[in-house]
Amino acid sequence: MGAVIGLFLLLAVSAFSQPGEQVERKTYILGPDDQVTVRVLDLEEFNGGGGANTKEFAYRIDLRGMVNLPMIGRMKAAGQTVEQLEAAVAERLKEYLKTPSVTVAVVEYKSQPISVIGQVTTPGVHQLQGRKTLLEVISVVGGLKPDAGHQIKITRKIEYGAIPLASAKTDPTGRTLWPRSA
Questions:
Q1: Within its chain, how far is the Cα of 49 from the centroid?
Q2: In order of start, what are the domains of the chain with their CATH numbers?
Q3: Coil, strand, or helix at residue 71?
Q4: Residue 49 phi/psi, 5° resolution?
Q5: How far apart, in whole angstroms, are the C-alpha atoms of residue 31 and residue 125?
Q6: Tens of pLDDT, residues 3-34
């Protein structure tokens, strides 16, 4: 019998998804240190000045969850989906354009780290990019080692909410939750 997998996922947000979700736009929640691009049709201030040498600008969400955008200034970005941020930017730009066409894309994911330790190929801290199933997370870390066991432990800080599993419970310190062992 192999060693226990000992796979610990320290999840900052609810990371489990249903198949077929449009991950980034509808479900990925922006957070501090994520980096986004914001493009606005017919507005050079967002699009690098236009022309052949146009450089796309990326904006980092600061540790307070704010992003500093041209013409708008600082606005809240953390806690919103990409679509919600697009709508908020468009609303703020109505002062300058009748019907702003805004596109936001995540270019660097940094706000949802997970730690995977134990009998996996590449243990360590990895960044979630949208919602992931447990199988997808195991794949991201290169899969299980041949001597991995048959148990997985999933934990996260209690302030991020309960793990959505019927067998989840609070640990003795009241700080994390995990499924009960079988």
A1: 30
A2: 8-21+112-179 (no CATH), 30-108 (3.30.1950.10)
A3: coil
A4: 90, -5
A5: 17
A6: 434 444 444 333 443 333 345 567 788 999 99
**Inter-CA distances, 82 with 2, 23, 153, 156, Å:** 43, 10, 31, 24
- Element (DSSP H or E) covering residue 10: strand 8-10
- The answer to whether the predicted template modeling score (pTM) of the entire model surpasses 0.90 is no
What length does the chain have?
A: 182
* Owner of token pair 């019927």: 166
**In whole angstroms, what is the distance from residue 15 CA to residue 34 CA?**
16
Residue type, 123: P
**What is the distance between the alpha carbons of residues 69 and 74, in angstroms, rounded to a whole number?**
6
Which tens digits make up the pLDDT trace of 63-75? 999 999 999 999 9
